[in-house]
Every structure is written in structure tokens, then in C-alpha cells.
Design goal:
The chain is of the alpha/beta class. The chain has eleven helices and 18 strands. The protein has two domains: 206 residues, TIM Barrel; 125 residues, Lyase, Ornithine Decarboxylase, Chain A, domain 1 (Beta Barrel), CATH 2.40.37. Helices cover 25% and strands 21% of the residues. An eight-stranded parallel sheet has the order 8-7-6-5-4-3-2-9. Strands 10-13-16-15-14-17 form a six-stranded antiparallel barrel. A two-stranded antiparallel sheet has the order 11-12. Bound molecules: pyridoxal-5'-phosphate.
Length: 370
């Protein structure tokens, strides 16, 4: 029996979720964010599935050039702009759009001699305080870029939201007000919204929206109370049961003996662990599905294995049966919350050892609200 840790990527779920983003976007155009290897789903796989988007956004040249080489003609935005001066030449050659967030990048463009000017998005720090020019610098920077021969007439404006996943936070409204004031009267299309903005803050839609996580079927919101969106999980991580034992009351399970059997009980060992990207910090009690039925992880996550409490599963369970770690039937957000992380990280950290497969639609349309 081969080791059966698999990530099954549902291409039609990706396409469906793009439709959900489009519906939510109204008149705004949709830039599909496929950075981070398509949030762990595979860069080209995500791009093919999401090719109905109006544009793609990635982090760096290493993610953008393969898209061009695969024939995608969409606008492609480098969300962090050039990392070093020479990159603007490549951006120009591959017709990549750039975010410009710093004075040093403005200088690079002012001094560059480009065969083809770049479409630039001037990034405003409206309150996240990560990347972006301070609001009081925006007008001057806009004028500098507009005057540069390296920048096309399509000079646009971008900002990023820090707390849009928190429906009770006043931060998003403050960021909107800051962005509006810093850019009032400036020409150019605008983009503000990530998935959380798109789903929960209609005023952030502007001319373009930039959904990422929702395209993969998860949301950044507290999974117990998300805004309604009929998303479908795009990645289902599964493996198989490799052994089953009948342990005795008092037996301690796994490294450190952190979980002790309260009674005589059946325990399964499933072939997945942190070496596959399953989070090591997932504690006892983290949900898994065994043959589609909810059960709980017990003891520490090992590199290659986890242990599962089989009490409460009425149907017989056998070696070789399927275990689902997240995906269809078990939202990644819920697993992430147990592990003290977010679905984004779960998706991004699935390792090379896991076999990636594509599924067109094994179970037919199966909308689940997340
Ligand atoms: C990653 C990213 C997004 C997408 O965010 P999600 O929360 O995944 O929707 C949008 N904009 C920028 C600048 C990003 O870095």
C-alpha cells in the first residue's frame, strides 16, 4: 500500500468561487490573487481554473514569469513591486504591472530606460503601516510617477486593509476615509478590497477588487459567524488509516504522553503529520473526518502520523479507510482555529510529499456556506 496523503484540488470549486467573488464585486473588476503558489493549490492550476478573472496578482517575478510563459495574457500585478532595480526591466519585458510603495522604487522608475513603460499602482499606507507611502506623500509621488517616462498613463491607486476580517472594528472605515482624502482629485482607478473587504465592506469595492482566500473556498472571518458566502472548498487534504489498536485505560498516546486514554478504547494511526504540512500545533480535540464522520485528534502530531480517537464512530473502521484533515465536510478555518493559525497558512504549507490531484467534481455541486 502506498502512502496516501493527498491534496485533491477541485477545479470547479475554484471557478465557482470566482463567480461568487464576481457577484459580490458588482461593477468592479476582479483581480484574482494567486501568490504563494496559488495559496498552496499550485500556481498554474489556480491560474487555469481562475482564468475568467480580469487580472492576476502575485508577489514576485518568480511567480509572474511562469504565467506569461504558460501563455496567460491577463494583466499581472506584482503586489510588492520590484525588489531590486534590475527587476523593472524584466517587468517591462514581460508586461507586468507593478505596485510602487516606496521612494526608492520611485527613484528606480525615474532613472530606468524602459522599452515599454510600466502600468504602476501607487500604494497608499491608509493605516496598515506595512507597505505604502504615507498619505501626506501621495500627491507628490503621484506627480513624480505621472511625469516619469517609465510609467504608462494608466497610473492607479492601491491600498490594503488591516482589519476587514473584524466586523466590529472601526479601522476599515478609518482606512477608507484616509485613502479617500489622500487621493481625492487624483486621476486613476482604485483598488482597496481583499476577500474580507469584498464580502463584508461594500464601500471598499472601488474599481478593482483583489480576492485571494475566498477563491480557495475559505474566509478570513471567525468560522462561527462569517458573512454568508456560498463558497466551496477547493482543497481537500486526505490520507488513510495505517493502523488501528485497542488501547487500555491509562495508556498515554504518542510523544510526551500528552493524552491519556480515559477507558479501554480504539485508536487509529493516520498517515499524515507535520512533514506533510499538517500543523504540529493542532491540539488533542482538533476535528478530523474518518470515512466522513467527525472524530478527534489525540496526542501530539508527529512528522508522519497522527492518532485519532475512534470512540463514537458507529460504523466499523478499518485500515485503509479515508481520513479527511480539511476540505469537503470539514472547513479549513475550523481546523486552523484549533491549531492557532489561519486557513491561509494551512493551504500554503502543504509539502511536496503530499500528492496533488485535480478533481473536476467528484460529488457534484455541493455548496457549503463558510
Ligand atoms: C494577499 C493579498 C490580497 C488577498 O487577500 P485575501 O485576504 O487572501 O483575500 C489582496 N491584496 C494584497 C495586497 C495582498 O497582499
Amino acid at each position: 500500500m502506498t502512502r496516501e496523503a493527498r491534496a485533491v484540488i477541485n477545479v470547479s470549486a475554484l471557478r465557482h468561487n470566482l463567480g461568487v467573488a464576481r457577484d459580490a464585486a458588482g461593477q468592479a473588476r476582479v483581480m484574482a490573487v494567486i501568490k504563494g503558489n496559488g495559496y498552496g493549490h499550485g500556481l498554474l492550476r489556480a491560474a487555469y481554473a481562475l482564468r475568467g478573472a480580469d487580472a492576476f496578482a502575485v508577489t514576485c517575478l518568480e511567480e509572474a514569469i511562469p504565467l506569461r510563459e504558460a501563455g496567460f495574457a491577463h494583466p499581472i500585478l506584482l503586489l510588492e513591486g520590484p525588489y531590486e532595480p534590475g527587476e523593472v526591466q524584466l517587468a517591462s519585458r514581460y508586461r507586468l504591472d507593478v505596485v510602487i510603495h516606496s521612494d526608492w522604487q520611485i527613484s528606480v522608475l525615474q532613472n530606468a530606460r524602459l522599452a515599454r513603460p510600466l502600468n504602476a499602482w501607487l500604494k497608499v499606507d491608509s493605516g496598515m503601516h506595512r507597505l505604502g507611502l504615507p498619505p501626506e506623500r501621495v500627491r507628490e509621488a503621484h506627480a513624480q510617477l505621472a511625469a516619469s517616462a517609465s510609467v504608462s498613463p494608466h497610473l492607479r491607486l492601491i491600498t490594503h486593509l488591516a482589519e476587514a476580517d473584524d466586523l466590529d472594528s472601526g479601522k476599515t472605515d478609518r482606512q477608507l476615509a484616509c485613502f479617500d482624502e489622500a487621493t481625492s482629485g487624483l486621476r486613476g482607478e482604485r483598488t482597496i478590497a481583499n476577500s474580507a473587504g469584498l464580502l463584508a465592506w461594500p464601500r471598499t469595492r472601488a474599481d478593482w477588487v483583489r480576492p485571494g482566500i475566498m477563491l480557495y473556498g475559505a474566509t478570513p472571518f471567525d468560522h462561527r459567524n462569517p458573512p454568508h458566502a456560498p463558497l466551496r472548498p477547493a482543497m481537500t487534504l486526505t490520507t488513510r488509516i495505517h493502523a488501528i489498536y485497542q488501547h487500555r485505560s491509562g495508556d498515554a498516546i504518542g510523544y510526551g504522553g500528552t493524552w491519556v486514554c480515559p477507558e479501554d478504547m480504539p485508536v487509529a494511526v493516520a498517515a499524515i503529520g507535520y512533514g506533510d504540512g499538517y500543523p504540529r500545533h493542532a491540539p488533542s480535540g482538533t476535528p478530523v473526518l474518518v470515512n466522513g464522520v467527525r472524530a478527534q485528534l489525540i496526542g501530539r502530531v508527529s512528522m508522519d502520523m497522527i492518532c485519532i480517537d475512534l470512540r463514537g464512530i458507529d460504523e466499523p473502521v478499518e485500515v485503509g479507510d479515508e481520513v479527511t484533515l480539511w476540505g469537503e465536510g470539514l472547513p479549513a478555518e475550523e481546523v486552523a482555529e484549533h491549531a492557532g493559525t489561519i486557513a491561509y497558512e494551512l493551504f500554503c504549507t502543504v509539502t511536496q510529499r503530499v500528492r496533488f490531484l485535480e478533481e473536476r467534481d467528484r460529488h457534484g455541486p455541493h455548496p457549503h456556506s463558510v
